[in-house]
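User: Show me a protein chain along with its predicted structure.
Assistant: Here is one chain, sequence first, then C-alpha cells.
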Amino acid sequence: MQLLRTLFKRRLSVLLAGGFLFSFLLTAGVQVERTGTCRGLLTIGLSALLTVPAALLLRALFDLGWKRRTGEDTARPLHVRTVFICLTACYIPMYLILFPGSFAYDVPFQLKQVFTGVYSSHHPLLHTLFMGKLVQMGAFFGQVNIGAAIYTLLQILLLSKCFSRCIESIEKQSGTRAGIAAFFFYALYPLHMLMASNATKDTLFGASFALALCLIMQKMRMGVNNRENGRMILAILCSILLRNNAVYAFLAWAVLGMFCLKEEPRRIPLAVLMSTLLAMFTGACISQVMNAADGDIVEMLAVPIQQVARVRLNRPEVLSESELEAIDAAMPNRAWEKYDPTISDPVKFEMNSDAIRSDPKRYIRLYLSVLTKAPDECVNAFLMLTHGFLYPYQRYSVSGYYLQTEISDKYYDGWWKGERIRDMSRFPKLRQAIAWRFGAQGAMQWPIGYLFNMGVIIWLVLYLVLRQMYQGSRGMAFTALLPVLLLCTFLLGPCMAGRYVYPFVCILPVMAQRSRRELSMNSQQPDGGNEL
C-alpha cells in the first residue's frame, strides 16, 4: 500500500507539473509572438485554468504507451557496421550538394586561432584544433578546400559512428524494432543530413551527447560491460570538450544523483562525476599546452545583458544616476540602443568587459536592482530571447538564418592571405534551394517548417521527459533530468537557432525508447495509480 501511495503521489505530481508547464509555455508564447510582451498575472491565471485539462491530456498520451503490445520481437538484429555504412551513405548526397561543407557561424574565428597561433577557450579547443589543423594542412599544400572537405567527411564518419552505437544500445534496451525505428530517424530526418556537413561544434556535440545519454540509460536499466562503460566515459568526455556549457549539465546531474539515488544506481552518477572531472582536467591541459586565453566574461551574460539593455532603452526613468552611469560604462557609445530582442550579440559585442571585471559587486547590485525595479521588462527580455525554444512559433522571427548553410567570408580580417574556403558544390542550384527552404525563413513553410520548428522539438523532448518520470523507475526518471539541465544552459545563450536545437533532435530516439520490461511492469499497475 505504501508503494501504491508513493506511486500515486509521484504520478499526480508529474501530471500537474507537466500540465502547468505546457499551459504556461502556451499562454506566454502566444502573447510574446503576437505582441512582444507577456502579462504576468494573466499568464499565470490562464495557466492555472488550463492545468487540469492539460494534465488529463498528458495522462491519456502516457497511457497509450502502456497499451502497446509487448509480444516477442522477431525482427533480425541489426549489424552495427551495416548501420554505420547505411547512415554514411544517407549523408553523402548532402555532402556533395554542400561541398566542401558549410563553414559559417564561428568557424572563421576558430580558423583564425589556428592560422595565427593565438588561441582562446571561448570556443572548444578540441573542435578548433580538429577542424583548424585539417584546413591548415590543406592550405599548406595549396588546397585549402581539400582540407575543409576532409574535415567534413571525417565529421560525417564520426556522426554515423555515434548514431550507430546509439542504435546498438537502443536495440539492447528496447528490442530490434526500436533500433530500426531509431535508424530510420537518424538516416532520413533532414536536419541530420544538413548538420552532418555543417562545420559547427554542435554537430559532433549533439551526437556525442546522445550517445552519452543512451549509455547512461543502458547502465541504469541493465548495467554495462567494461567496453560500454569506456564508451560512456569517452562520450561524456567528448561532449564536454565539444561544448563548454555541457560541463554544467553533467556536473549538476552527477552531484544531484549522489543525493537522490540509493545503493547500486548511485554508482552511475559517481561514474559520470569522475568522467566530468576528467573532461575538465583534459580541457585545462589542452588550454595550458596551447597557451589559450580565457573566454570573455560577457559570453556568459547574454540574458542579463538583454535585460539591462531593454530596461535602459525602455524604462530609463526607474534607474538612478549612478545606475545609468554604470550601464553606460559597461555599454559604451550607447550600445544599449542596439538592443535586438531576439539576439544578444549586437549589444554583447560592444560590451566593456573590463568595467565589469574591475567592480563585479557593483554590477551584481546593478542587475539585482534592475530586476527589482522593472521585473516585467526583464521577464519580457528573457521570453523574447528564448521563446523560439519554448513555443511552437508560427513565424521564425529570430534575426539571422535558422541554419546557415553557406561559407562565411565576412569575418576574415587579413589573418590569411591565401585561397579561402569557397563553394565547390556539385549541385549549385540544389544548394541555393536548400539554403532558402531549410536555412532561412523558408524553414517556416508548411509542412516542412514543423520538422524544424524549435518549439515543437523542445516540447516533444519535455513530453518524453515527463513520460519517463511518470512511467519509468526512479533511476530512469532521474536520468531524464539530464536533457532538462542541458536545456537550461542553452536558455542562457545569445540566441535561438537551428544548430542549438540539434542536440535535442539527436536525443529524441533515445528518450522515446521504452524497454519491454518497463512496459510489462506498467501494464500490471492497477488503474487506481493513474487517477488524476
